[in-house]
Amino acid sequence: MEIILKEDFKGLGYKNDVVVVKPGYGRNYLIPRGIGILASETNKKVVAENIKQAAHKAEKLKKDAVELSEKLAKLSLEIGAKVGDSGKIFGSITPLQLSDALKNKGFNIDRKKITFKVEIKEAGEYEAFVDLHKEIHQAVKFTVVAE
What are the pLDDT digits (tens) for 133-145? Predict the structure, then answer.
């Protein structure tokens, strides 16, 4: 019996894969739980069209991420922080603060997509990494200055 998987299933396959399973397993487990559908010609055509549209949408998302990456590469940010006499920051710079600074420049980037290689505890120049797409990561340079 051929089944088209509607979601990733460990040990069997990934979403939209056509897999061959025993008839009882397909009828009594996969289909009733919504994990798969019967692989008829009609369903195969529907899945092929869905894959085609998803590929088109993914290509557009990737293209937008590349454009945003090029803009971020040219960007220079300054983040103000309270600094002590020794040059150390009271606290540290977080992805939330960098996200807010990017919003002030017109870029709407979620703080969860921003990572630092080191913990930022002193004033100076640093680099953060932004995950724009599963294949595209951009470094953003910023400077921490005393307020």
Answer: 878 889 999 999 8
